[in-house]
Specification:
The protein has a single domain, classed as Orthogonal Bundle (MetI-like fold). Helix content is about 75%, strand content about 0%. The chain has 12 helices and no strands. The protein is globular. InterPro entries: BPD_transp_1_N, MetI-like, MetI-like_sf.
Length: about 325
C-alpha cells in the first residue's frame, strides 16, 4: 500500500508542475500589455518601460516562470498589476469562503443523495422509487445559477426567511453566517445531489443483485438490513469516483454561485480580476483551482484503496 501511495504522490507532484507551466504559458500568450492596462492609453513609452520592469514582464519567459513558481512555493503569488497589493493573502481569505461554500454544498448533496438514491434502488419496481428517479432527472437538468435565482426569489424575496446575498464571517456572527450560507449551499448541493442520486441508485442496484446479499436475505434479513450490513461498502466504491468529480465541479461551479449571492470567494475574485485584466492575479487563482482539483483526484485514489481491499496489493 505504501508504494502505491508514494507512486500516486509522485504523479500528483508531476501533475502540479505540468499544470503550473500550462497556466503560466496560457497567461503569457494572452494579448494585451499589463503595463498598458495599469497606466492607461496616455502613458508615455518611458513610463511603460519602467512599469514593465517593475512588473518583471520585460524578462525572458523562463526567468519569469521560475521567479513566479519559486515565490508560489513560499506562499508569495506576487503583487496585483492593478492594486499593487500582495495576491497571496487575498487568495487565502477568498479560498476560505469558497471552501465553506463547497463543503456545505457537498454536505447538502450527500445528505439528499444517499437516502434518496438508496430508496430509489431498493424500491425501483415501485411507484415511489420511480418518482424519486424522475425528480432526480429534473434536478440534473437545472443549472446551479438558475437554482440560485429560484431559491432567492422564493426564500429571500417572497418569504423573506433568508438573506439574498452577502457574507458574514463565522467568527463574527455564527447565526448570520449560517443563514447567509444556506441558499448558496442549497443552490450548489441540490443540483449536484440530483446527479449523485442517480449514481447512488445505480451502485446500490448493482450491489442488490450480488450473491452475498441474496444469501443474507435468505437468512431472514430485510432488503434494507442486508444492504446496510453487507452492501453499502461495496456500493461506495463507484460512488466515491462520482464524489471526486462532483467536488471538482462544485469548486468550479462556485464561481457563478458566488457572483449571484455576492460572496467574496475565489469565484468573485476571479471574475473581477478578469474584468480588470489583472493577469497575475488570474494566474494565481487558476493555479489554486487546478491544484485543488488534482488534490481531490489524489484523495479519491487513496479512498479506493481504503474501501476496496483488493486494490491494496495491486500495482
Amino acid at each position: 500500500m505504501i508504494p502505491k501511495i508514494l507512486r500516486r504522490t509522485a504523479i500528483l507532484l508531476v501533475s502540479v508542475f505540468v499544470a503550473s507551466i500550462v497556466v503560466f504559458l496560457f497567461m503569457a500568450v494572452l494579448p494585451g500589455d499589463p503595463a498598458q492596462v495599469a497606466l492607461g492609453v496616455n502613458a508615455t513609452p518611458e513610463l511603460l518601460a519602467k512599469t514593465r520592469q517593475d512588473f518583471g514582464i520585460d524578462r525572458p519567459l523562463l526567468t519569469q516562470y521560475f521567479d513566479w513558481i519559486g515565490g508560489v512555493l513560499h506562499g508569495d503569488f506576487g503583487k496585483s498589476y492593478v492594486t499593487r497589493e500582495a495576491i497571496g493573502p487575498q487568495l487565502l481569505d477568498r479560498f476560505g469562503v469558497t471552501l465553506w461554500l463547497v463543503g456545505a454544498g457537498m454536505l447538502v448533496a450527500f445528505l439528499f443523495a444517499l437516502p434518496l438514491g438508496t430508496f430509489a434502488a431498493v424500491r425501483h419496481r415501485k411507484a415511489s422509487g420511480a418518482a424519486v428517479s424522475g425528480l432526480s432527472q429534473v434536478g440534473v437538468a437545472i443549472p446551479a445559477f438558475l437554482a440560485a435565482i429560484l431559491l432567492v426569489q422564493i426564500f429571500a424575496v417572497q418569504l423573506r426567511w433568508l438573506p439574498s446575498g452577502g457574507w458574514t464571517p463565522p467568527n463574527q456572527d455564527a447565526g448570520e453566517f449560517i443563514r447567509g450560507l444556506i441558499l448558496p449551499a442549497l443552490s450548489l448541493g441540490l443540483v449536484q445531489g440530483a446527479v449523485l442520486t442517480r449514481y447512488v441508485r445505480s451502485a446500490v442496484l448493482d450491489t442488490l443483485g450480488q450473491d452475498y446479499l441474496r444469501t443474507a436475505r435468505s437468512k431472514g434479513l430485510r432488503p434494507f438490513q442486508a444492504l446496510f450490513r453487507h452492501g453499502l461498502r461495496n456500493a461506495a466504491v463507484p460512488v466515491v469516483t462520482v464524489l471526486g468529480l462532483q467536488l471538482a465541479t462544485l469548486l468550479i461551479g462556485a464561481v457563478v454561485v458566488e457572483r449571484v449571492f455576492v460572496l467574496p470567494g475565489l469565484g468573485s475574485m476571479l471574475l473581477d480580476s478578469v474584468a480588470a485584466r489583472d493577469l497575475l492575479t488570474v494566474q494565481g487563482i487558476v493555479l489554486v483551482l487546478v491544484v485543488g482539483v488534482l488534490l481531490i483526484n489524489f484523495v479519491v485514489d487513496l479512498l479506493y484503496t481504503v474501501l476496496d481491499p483488493r486494490l491494496r496489493g495491486a500495482s
